[in-house]
Amino acid sequence: MTEAGIAIRAIGLCKAYHCYKHPVDALLELVMRRQRHDRFIALDNVNLEVRQGEIIGILGRNGAGKSTLLKLIAGTLERSSGDLDVHGRITAILELGTGFHMDYTGRENIYMGGLCLGMSRCEIDEKLEDIIQFSELSDFIDRPFKTYSTGMQARLTFSTATSIDPDIMIVDEALSVGDARFQLKCFNRLQQMRERQTTILLVSHDTNTITSLCDRAMILESGRVYAEGNPKRISVAYQNLLFGSSKTKKDMLIERAGDLKNSGIDKDPDSNTENVQLNKKNSKQPRNEKVISSETKLRYGSGEARLLDWGLLNDQGNDCNVITSGTACRLYMILRIMADLDDMSVGFAIKDRRGSVLWGVTNITQKYPPYQARSGETLTIVADCTMWLADGDYFVTLGVAHLDGGDKIDFVEDAIEFKIIGTSGIFTTSIINLQTNFRIMDGYAIKIKK
């Protein structure tokens, strides 16, 4: 008996497939009673508990078992073993165009898809115009579904699937297609469902989507639960899983501030550190005290280059972790090259508390070509900017990667934690500060005076 408030509970959930080299092997196995198949385990001993109204993000590489898990929960696939309890009406978008026929028109497919979702024809009649309006396909609704682009198919699929009020909504990468405007409409629709206490399982490779929308997140790897917890931390762990080196977990953790005392960066005549204007004599923080969160941070990469130092400077050239909005500042990092690199991309990204990227810059975004560096060189990378963020706490992720393929060389997640103060006269929920001159004038006066 499942306790109240639990929408989904899986204990020891497994799914295995019998793989035959030849179609006739299945018949021979039955007749001869000798095994002629290989056993592929798609899902192995998965435990999951989802409470009513939660949004759970699921990350994982291709073939990790994400779609298999969702199909088991949706009831379109039988489990091999384990216990699975699902309570409530389910709507699932497992594949693009699920329940739709390519030769039918968009309007006919709304009826077919709605019937597959358990709606009556009368219910579909009532919701038809809302579905068409949300999909923005009124000009194409009576054309064959096969003439639709991938984005148009996604619009109609999502609009139909979310037109009912399910207890559980399952979305398998359906938000990765369609234009940015429609994706925003989809996010807003999911937020509305969340307010109605709809339980949502969301598969996505986009960590920004996971951190901004989900209450919890999990990673599947080789059919098992690799990690589960806070969306921001899980997103960092997923990036490490994709791009991290083969080092041990202990090696991948960022060193504390004092661990860089013997790095020798001040002794390198080629490091150009004088351009950073550290002004350490007037700084309240010792030279090797990093401006980072008190928690140990995650670091990963191939090791072809090594970050020796990094930080945030205020307009006086001092290390800081509090900045007044609208003032100049400098992000910097010092990089030791350990192997020849021909396609180096290096940069900074600022994130909010949920891990959503608010701003980012690299040598590539600044129209510079991929940087070439030789083993033994020490480089200083700086980004001078005016900090127009609103009041709040923010984090800086920084590092270097290969442009070709995006493989990380040395990356530090949330390396710097800082606080913005000083904004006023804007919404308390604002993210940026545009230093607005707000006026109310008589008449029609919209021209900007130079």
UniProtKB/TrEMBL annotation:
<dbReference type="InterPro" id="IPR027417">
    <property type="entry name" value="P-loop_NTPase"/>
</dbReference>
<dbReference type="GO" id="GO:0016020">
    <property type="term" value="C:membrane"/>
</dbReference>
<dbReference type="GO" id="GO:0140359">
    <property type="term" value="F:ABC-type transporter activity"/>
</dbReference>
<comment type="similarity">
    <text>Belongs to the ABC transporter superfamily.</text>
</comment>
<dbReference type="InterPro" id="IPR029439">
    <property type="entry name" value="Wzt_C"/>
</dbReference>
<feature type="region of interest" description="Disordered">
    <location>
        <begin position="260"/>
        <end position="291"/>
    </location>
</feature>
<dbReference type="InterPro" id="IPR050683">
    <property type="entry name" value="Bact_Polysacc_Export_ATP-bd"/>
</dbReference>
<dbReference type="GO" id="GO:0016887">
    <property type="term" value="F:ATP hydrolysis activity"/>
</dbReference>
<dbReference type="GO" id="GO:0005524">
    <property type="term" value="F:ATP binding"/>
</dbReference>
<feature type="domain" description="ABC transporter">
    <location>
        <begin position="26"/>
        <end position="247"/>
    </location>
</feature>
<dbReference type="InterPro" id="IPR015860">
    <property type="entry name" value="ABC_transpr_TagH-like"/>
</dbReference>
<keyword id="KW-0067">ATP-binding</keyword>
<dbReference type="InterPro" id="IPR003439">
    <property type="entry name" value="ABC_transporter-like_ATP-bd"/>
</dbReference>
<dbReference type="Pfam" id="PF14524">
    <property type="entry name" value="Wzt_C"/>
</dbReference>
<feature type="compositionally biased region" description="Basic and acidic residues">
    <location>
        <begin position="260"/>
        <end position="270"/>
    </location>
</feature>
<protein>
    <recommendedName>
        <fullName>ABC transporter domain-containing protein</fullName>
    </recommendedName>
</protein>
<dbReference type="InterPro" id="IPR003593">
    <property type="entry name" value="AAA+_ATPase"/>
</dbReference>
<dbReference type="Pfam" id="PF00005">
    <property type="entry name" value="ABC_tran"/>
</dbReference>
<keyword id="KW-0547">Nucleotide-binding</keyword>
<keyword id="KW-0813">Transport</keyword>
